[in-house]
Every structure is written in structure tokens, then in C-alpha cells.
Write a structure and sequence with these properties.
By secondary structure, the protein is of the alpha/beta class. It has one domain (5-245): Spore Coat Polysaccharide Biosynthesis Protein SpsA, Chain A. Helices cover 33% and strands 24% of the residues. Strands 1, 4, 5, 6, 8, 9, 10, 11 and 12 form a nine-stranded mixed β-sheet that branches. It has a two-stranded antiparallel ribbon with strand order 2-3. α4 packs across α7 and α6 packs across α7 (199-206). The longest helix is centred in the C-terminal third of the chain and has 19 residues, at 227-245. The protein is globular, with a radius of gyration of 17 Å.
């Protein structure tokens, strides 16, 4: 069965790039004249995604307005009312817990080569976490896998991992069991809602019971959390993406 649903996590405050986020959520930061979340929506729609659930929080009305402007794909906004005091895992669970189908998940503040979505969709494993080689971005989340390329651990502290096999991109393909497994893990560990964790910490929590394949790619991408990230996106990452895809720089 082909995947036709995606979740975009977009509730964050964007406090590290307040020069932009004081006026709009991070997903509305423009690169090459287009808000990065709108580019993601176009990429997803081009690949058969017909429903996108956006987990909102900070300046949620901007995403509500966006959903009313876009007519070629169904966009549903799900508000995380506790966005200021919870983590992205709470946003993820609010969006995904009742889907009952396979889906893509991604973060709203990503600029990436569209072929990354193809890579995730075409990967034969039911649960796929995209990883990359070394980026030097300065805000890396490092991934440790086992010898079968299954997720073992991840951390921003590289010295807390036994080895480093990839960096977390922020794009996943997940099956319907993942939200249920996350809720079961939280219950076992005594974690309360709203969840105060990042969604990737939840993935580590369930990795021991549910194989999560890490698919490594060298395609260009960056998260945009700071002005330095944005400068790198414009000067380094976008030219690489445009060159590979034939898009105008």
C-alpha cells in the first residue's frame, strides 16, 4: 500500500532564530523566495501525499491560514496547546496516535533535497529513519546503530555514544505500530502527558522492541534553527540542492 499521509511537526517557539520567529513560525523562513514548509508540502504532494497533518503550537494561526490557501492537498492542523512546556514527542503523538496507517514524519524547519523523500518511501523496511554523513552544522544529533543498521541510540553529545554511524536528518517513514509503541513505552517508564521529550528520544525508547532502520544518504539538507544555519542554507545547501535538481539558484 502506498503512503499518502504525512505529519509535519511545527509547534516550536523558534527562540534561537527570533529575528524571524517573532513574526512567523520557523517553517515560514524563506529560502530561494519560498517558505521552507511550503516547499515541503509541494515535495510531499508531488509524491502522492494527499493528507498532511501539521502539529502546531507557536503562532498556530499562520498554519491555519496556510491550510486554507492550499487546495491540492488536504492539510489538517492539530494544536499542541502545551507547546511551550512540552517537547516534539507530544506534538508527534497528538498528530499520529489515531492515524492507523503508514506515514511520513518530518520537521518543519528542514531544507532538503526532494530525493530524500523518495529515499524514505522506497526503502523496503517498514520503519525508516533518514540519516546523513557528517554535516559540520554545529547542531548535530548523532546516531548510533547496530551492525544491521538498526537504531541503538542518538545524542547531541557524541561522547555519550559507543560509535557514530550517521547524523539525524528529521525525516522518517513509520508504520502504524509506532505511535502505539511510543505510548506503551511512556506508560512503562512512568512518563506523563504532555510529553516533555523530543520525538527522537521516544524513538530511542522503543528501539529495543521495534526495529528502526537507519537509512544513510549523502544528499544535501540542513535544519534551520539559527541565523548561522540560515546563512549556510542560502550559501551552501540550496546551491547544492538546486544543482542536483536543476532548480534555479
Amino acid at each position: 500500500m502506498s503512503i499518502d499521509t504525512a505529519v509535519i511537526m511545527a509547534a516550536g517557539l523558534g527562540s534561537r532564530i527570533s529575528e524571524y520567529s517573532r513574526d512567523a513560525p520557523k517553517g515560514f523562513i524563506p529560502v530561494a523566495g519560498q517558505p521552507i514548509v511550503e516547499r515541503s508540502i509541494e515535495i510531499l504532494a508531488d509524491r502522492g501525499i494527499r493528507r498532511i497533518i501539521i502539529g502546531t503550537g507557536y503562532m498556530a494561526s499562520e498554519y491555519e491560514a496556510l491550510s486554507s490557501r492550499i487546495g491540492h492537498v488536504q492539510i489538517d492542523c492539530v494544536a499542541n496547546q502545551d507547546f511551550a512546556h512540552s517537547g516534539s514527542l507530544e506534538t508527534f503523538l497528538l498528530c499520529a496516535r489515531n492515524l492507523g496507517c503508514e506515514f511520513l514524519s518530518l520537521e518543519s524547519d528542514l531544507l532538503y533535497d526532494a530525493a530524500m523523500i523518495d529515499r524514505a518511501l522506497e526503502c523496503p523496511f517498514p520503519n525508516v529513519i533518514l540519516g546523513s554523513g557528517r554535516t559540520g552544522s554545529g547542531d548535530e544529533v548523532y546516531i548510533q546503530t547496530d551492525d544491521r543498521s538498526h537504531l541503538v541510540n542518538l545524542s547531541k553529545d557524541r561522547f555519550s555514544l559507543a560509535r557514530i554511524d550517521a547524523e539525524l536528518v528529521g525525516i522518517c517513514k513509520l508504520d502504524r505500530s509506532v505511535p502505539l509503541a511510543l505510548e506503551a513505552w511512556m506508560s512503562r517508564e512512568g512518563h506523563k502527558r504532555p510529553a516533555g521529550f523530543h520525538y527522537e528520544e521516544g524513538l530511542v525508547g522503543i528501539a529495543g522492541s521495534l526495529p528502526l532502520h537507519v537509512e544513510k544518504t549523502e544528499l544535501a539538507w540542513t535544519e534551520i534553527d539559527t541565523l548561522e544555519h540560515l546563512a549556510r542554507a542560502n550559501s551552501v545547501i540550496w546551491p547544492r540542492i538546486a544543482s542536483a535538481s536543476g532548480e534555479p539558484v
